Amino acid sequence: MTFLRDTATIFSREFAPVWRDPLSLVFTMAQPLLFLYLFGPLLEQGTQTPGPAWQWFVPGILIMMCLSGPLMAGYFLLLDLIGGSMERLLVTPVSRTALLVGRTLKEFVVLLAQAVLIIGLAVPLGLDLHVPGVLTGLTLLVVFGIGLGGLSFVLAIVSAPGGELFYGVTQVVMFPLLLLSGVLLPVENGPGWLQTAAALNPVTYVVEAERALFAGRFLDAPVVGGAAAAVVTALLGLHLARRRMARGL
Amino acid sequence: MIHARGLTKTYTLKKTSVDAVRGVDLDVEAGQLVAFLGPNGAGKSTCLRMLTGLLPPTSGTARVAGHDVTTEAAAVRARIGYIGQKGGAGEAFRIGDELVTQGRCYGLTRRDARSRAEELLTVVGLDGLFARKPSTLSGGQRRRLDIALGLMNRPPLLFLDEPSTGLDPASRADIWAHILRLRADHGTTLFLTTHYLEEADTMAERVVVIDQGRIIADGTARALKADLAGDRLTVTLHDPADAPRAAELAAGLPGAAEIAADGPRLTLRVAAADRALPEFLRALDAAGLKAEAAESTRPTLDDVFLALTGRTIEDEDA
Ligand SMILES: Nc1ncnc2c1ncn2[C@@H]1O[C@H](COP(=O)(O)OP(=O)(O)OP(=O)(O)O)[C@@H](O)[C@H]1O
Ligand SMILES: [Mg+2]
């Protein structure tokens, strides 16, 4: 009971700035929006993508958001750790777990809102809407996002008070993870080593699963692989975050 | 209120380790105002962070507000307030919202938290600024906001880590007025760190001096100064040749020590200058020695620190 109340408290703390300034939501989406409008049409012209271009590309954009959103969650936590506000909250009786879950939940709501917006904007461009598939896809996205959020919290905590480690790792890890998942262009056309690297990247599986789901295929092998990758990431992220939290900050 | 035994903290940073606190014993009774004084890096913040349960001690135990900080952390948290060295309000949030969040974290309903927030903003003189962001406040206003955050739960015991550092004299006086009022109105036990010596001297009824992770002195400012530093007398003689004879007479004064002559100027330490000075002058007179000028200075806490360590806090901080 107190846990739920504490989670609600932290969620509303984190969400208030978004709520008071909803436009900020659109600004943080600038990158995916640019990709949607300036990169998407290029794919539509070419024939590199298997199947219809938008069906293939929109899930990729969602994954991009799913990688950067939780990263921001870690960044905001780092700011609170460097300043004194995390310390201030830790001296109150508020649940330690709620401090992280409340934050994750906010990222989650933001991610969902942005995903719905992107999908809404992509439909007029030519995205076929398979509603059950899309809903399942969003669920998968959120599960994956929670795991990434947990990992980024751990990274933020380990990096405090300096923060260099956080900036370093996120710079070095983000782009390879994205490029090697076939978000922008199909990896199948790349050289063998690149395909091997992609096969080792958990993001690849989630992207493939999203694509299958957005095409309305539920019982595809990629869906199973993607779901497994998302669930494993979520469990790992939550486990590490909880364990790190228990050790004190 | 606070009972600590053998507290130590060793930080490990990439293979090197820092012994920040090396065995602190401390007892603070309810209602006291204790100033924790020491130079930069002495271990003040580290002690506070251990006493508030933020940092697990490397060894030792502490009972705070009746509960053990490591095994009963939740009970301790419900009974204390903490104002950290760094500002407590998050930059992205409106200050009123931060206060409400703080109240909610202590279990207040949203409504109670809201009215308590308004009340506290008035108490610390920030009324009408509910919707502002911390970045738009002045340094003194920010510190008052921190105090408001720390008071949200009406704690019987409040820890303050350098509440007045970096503020101009007017803001410092203002912060102190709040601190003293808190004590007068609610009997709050206050444990605060500072490196402003005169603050510790005039405000606190008890001064605990820490240096290099160890408590090196503990008592009222008056007792510390009398016991450890003593008052200083400087007497200028008419004839420098009288100095050795005057020094002999000075040695007979109560608590006389560190007698030194520099030409006609004789300096020495005594227990109580107000009594010793007239007595010394009478003795000089009786011996036929002529004094031209006499002056006494009361010690500062810095003299206490100097007597204890051979260094001064002000040098350390410079
Ligand atoms: N997180 C940390 N990791 C490693 N060493 C630390 C850490 N925090 C403090 N120290 C070291 O421990 C010692 C005591 O630090 P502490 O912050 O307790 O000092 P302080 O008395 O509060 O000083 P100040 O007056 O500057 O605030 C210092 O030598 C400091 O460098
Ligand atoms: Mg400090």
Q: Main attributes?
A:
heterodimer; A: 249 residues; mainly alpha; 0% strand; globular; B: alpha/beta; Rossmann fold; Alpha-Beta Plaits; 6-stranded mixed sheet; 4-stranded antiparallel sheet; 39% helix; binds adenosine-5'-triphosphate; binds magnesium ion
Description:
The complex is a heterodimer of chains A (about 250) and B (about 325). Chain A has 11 helices and no strands. Chain A is mainly α. Chain A has one domain. The longest helix of chain A is centred in the first third of the chain and has 30 residues, at about 55-80. Chain A is globular, with a radius of gyration of 18 Å. A 6-stranded mixed beta sheet of chain B has the order 6-7-8-3-9-10, with helices on both faces. In chain B, helix 3 (about 95-105) packs across helix 4 (about 110-125) and helix 4 packs across helix 5 (about 140-150). Chain B is elongated, with a radius of gyration of 24 Å. At the A-B interface, helix 1, helix 4 and helix 5 of A face helix 2, strand 6 and helix 3 of B. The structure holds adenosine-5'-triphosphate (ATP) and magnesium ion (MG). Magnesium ion binds near residues 44, 45, 85 and 161 of chain B.
- Indicate the overall shape of chain B: elongated
Shape of chain A: globular
Task: Describe the sheet with the most strands of chain B.
Answer: 6 strands, mixed
Number of domains of chain A: 1
End-to-end distance of chain A: 25 Å
Number of domains of chain B: 2
How do you describe this structure in short?
Chain A is mainly alpha-helical. Chain A has eleven helices and no strands. Chain B has 318 residues and is an alpha/beta fold.
Task: Give the helices and strands, then pairings.
The complex is a heterodimer of chains A (249) and B (318).
Chain A: H1 2-20, H2 23-27, H3 30-45, H4 53-82, H5 85-91, H6 96-125, H7 131-159, H8 164-179, H9 192-199, H10 202-214, H11 221-246
Helix pairs in contact in A: 1-6, 3-4, 4-6, 4-7, 4-8, 4-10, 6-7, 7-8, 7-10, 7-11, 10-11
Chain B: E1 2-13, E2 16-28, E3 33-37, H1 44-51, E4 59-64, E5 67-68, H2 73-79, E6 80-83, H3 95-105, H4 110-123, H5 139-151, E7 157-161, H6 169-186, E8 189-194, H7 197-203, E9 206-211, E10 214-219, H8 221-229, E11 231-237, H9 243-250, E12 257-262, E13 265-270, H10 273-286, E14 291-297, H11 301-309, H12 313-317
Parallel strand pairs in B: 3-8, 3-9, 6-7, 7-8
Antiparallel strand pairs in B: 1-2, 1-4, 4-5, 9-10, 11-13, 11-14, 12-13
Helix pairs in contact in B: 3-4, 4-5, 8-11
The structure holds adenosine-5'-triphosphate and magnesium ion.
Adenosine-5'-triphosphate (ATP) binds next to strand 1, strand 2 and helix 1 of chain B.
